[in-house]
Amino acid sequence: MAKIGKLLFLFLLMLGFEQVKAQDVDVSATLNETIVFQGDRVVLTVTVGGKRFKNVSNPELPELNGLRYLTTTPSTSTNFSFVNGVAKSTYSYSYYLLTEKEGDYFVPEVKVEIDGKVYKTSPLKITVKGRTQAQDNTQNTPDIYLKLEVSNDKPFVGEQVVAKVVLYFKNNLEILSYQPVAGWKAEGFWKEELRDGKQPQAESAIINGMRYRKAELMKYALFPSKTGKLTISPFTVVTTVRVASRNRDPFSSFFGGFGTNQRNIDLETEPLEIEAQAVPRVKDATYLGAVGSFTVKRAITQNNALVGESIEVTTTVSGTGNIALVSKPTYEYPNTFEIYDPQETSSIDRKGDVVSGSKNFTDILIPRTPGNYEIPEMNVSYFNPQKKRHEVVKLPAIAMVIKRDPKATQLTSQVIPFNVQPALGLVVWTSKIPDEFYNEWWFFVILGFPLIGAVGLYFYRGYLDRMEDDVQFARSNKASKKADKRLIEAKKVAQTDVKAAYSALYKALVGYVADRAHVPETGESDEMYIKILHEKGLEEESLKPLKQLMDKCSTIRFAPAGTAADFEKDADLASDLLKKIRRVL
Amino acid sequence: MILGFLLFFFTQFGSVSDVQLQFDTANQFLKEQDFEQALNIYRTLKQSDFESGALYLNSGLAYTQLDSLGMAKADFLKAQQFDDTREQALEGLSYVTKKLPQKAAALPKMPWDNLLEWTVDSGVVFWLISGSVLLYMSFMILIIYWFKARGNKWVLNAVIASVILSGAFFAAAFYTNYVNVRYGKAVLKVKQSSLFESASTASSVVSLTFEGYEFTVDFTTSQGNPEWVYVRMSNGVFGWIQKQDLIQFN
């Protein structure tokens, strides 16, 4: 039995070894160009590589459609390598094919027999284009240009758009080096550079009927941050190129060798406009701002905790999309929990064509009161741009049991002193209607009184000052009172001395005129006073009795004194005349 | 109890005695720990033409018992404006602030902030009466200067000083009135609300706010947006918040 087992083991071991041998052989076919013009030659290369094999047959060539073998005798090459102690052999068989007709064709699978076993290559697609259009466009096409190519020109806000910076150049140019100019700003986007660690590889392309080679220099993931038309600004690359001195060499590498006819060229992409669409609203769920494909999980460090112990509630959002723009969901925590500033960590993977990664939000809670609590369940959503709808993720409720720590000192809310007693009984009630007396008219009157009073007193003070300083002003202002006083005195004196009364009457008349006309009271003739009054416009019917009265007053001193009754009439006349004089002086 | 409660709704607050009667009824509910009933009456009393520190204090206590800390904080803030309940209201505020799970950061106050705050707290009436007294005083001194102490520089300087001071007092009254008309206070009464960049939920969120956060409301800027108010948070951040989430008071 044991012997049979050993034999079976050896058989299986041999079988396994044969499997390893078979897996060590690699057969592949490649075309040096996949888009060519009618009449061009392309090279089909069949490569056989592996660690150990003995007999390799020539490839069995398939029938071609639209293409023709220039020769079925291959040019062969052999390569041996010894890497890390392992020997490897590679056989290459190259066949020249001629493109005969326009169209898309396939090079069917090529069979190769190795050590008795047949291996097949994958079919290869080739596109053949006509030459007529190419000849027309030769003069108008640039030899080299840079283009920004985006995967989607109508993305949703937050959806990833792959923007490739692609260099197109004609076959007579060799690209020696390139250097992107720093400072490219994709305003309105969050951008991440995508890296795959490979050197750019040139491949053939037919653009507007012209043969070009193209190489993808850089690749970015752009995420629109707002809706509407957004313009991606030009991307600039400085390239060093050399015009190839030799004929077209289909095997030349993207980076050529050193040369003398090389120069630097600044290349810039055209501004590119894309239109970002708004993400539709979601009902009954909290939108996290995530666009892509994600998983959302919520976890708690411990469901049973003591008062004062910290509990962490972590929300993890992971997947592909705008991971850096995902916002933190806000949960309803029990009121008796102290909540500290959340922590946020993220890891982003930028390899390949998509941005992926995860983002963690950690809420730190400290319960302050024992009891059974629950963080309610919650629906959160992210937007799936492929399905063009929100994906709702239900986060289950989390139950927590908080117990008092028997060893801890009493620091919970229950020991916060609160001894406020309600105010009972009669209280003072005040009216809510504001007593805005300052909006009443009378308030402004009271407020304005000192201001108006100050102005009035200012002028009165000025009047008093002038009365003191200006003699003529003072005489003029006092003239009326002085005349009235003299008239009264004259009437009094008339009872005892009529002559003296007439003298006083004369002074009252002449004094008033002299004071008001600013002339001396004495030393001037009566004619002069009459003349002044005449000039001032006193009418003749007043001037005449005034002249007669003044004459009487002047002459009565030398004539017999009249009676008091006569004086009374003259005094009334004088009073009447004074009224008329006041009007003109 | 129910009858008394129904009677309350059909009673008009014609006088202080009516208000006092209903206040006593609400206090009875409060003592019986029927906080909802008590609050129903307190809320209606707040709509009347009368107010008192005790009303806000007791209302704040009822809200505290119901764990509605935002509303409680608003009531205690109001109660502290009355002399007879200031001390207890401050104690209530301290308690509520400790119990609130989210604490709002506040900008440190500069000396001029304190000065302006003191100016507004002193009230329009204080500044107007002080300014008027000084104005009359300067008028009297002016009369003395003109008619009794002409040329006396000390008296003249006293006139100038009192006029300038009264002008400053009137300016303070004008400023206080401007601030009272334009700005008010508010407290967040819901557990959480967002502060937006503009008066729309579609705009960017400026900050998250939590129950008990205090705001300064700008009534002038808020005009034209009946469902939104423009507020300033205690940390100096401005934004728009939905009116229904706040309890406002002057």
In short:
The complex is a heterodimer of chains A (585) and B (250). With 585 residues, chain A is an alpha+beta fold.
Protein architecture, described:
The complex is a heterodimer of chains A (585) and B (250). Chain A has eight helices and 30 strands. By secondary structure, chain A is α+β, with helices and mostly antiparallel strands. Chain B folds into three domains: 98 residues, Tetratricopeptide repeat domain (Serine Threonine Protein Phosphatase 5, Tetratricopeptide repeat); 72 residues; 67 residues, Roll (SH3 type barrels). Chain B is built from ten helices and eight strands. In chain B, a hairpin with an 8-residue loop joins strand 3 and strand 4. In chain B, helix 4 packs parallel to helix 6, helix 5 packs antiparallel against helix 6 and helix 7 crosses helix 9. The longest helix of chain B has 30 residues. In chain B, 35% of the residues are buried. The interface between A and B is large, with 39 and 50 residues.
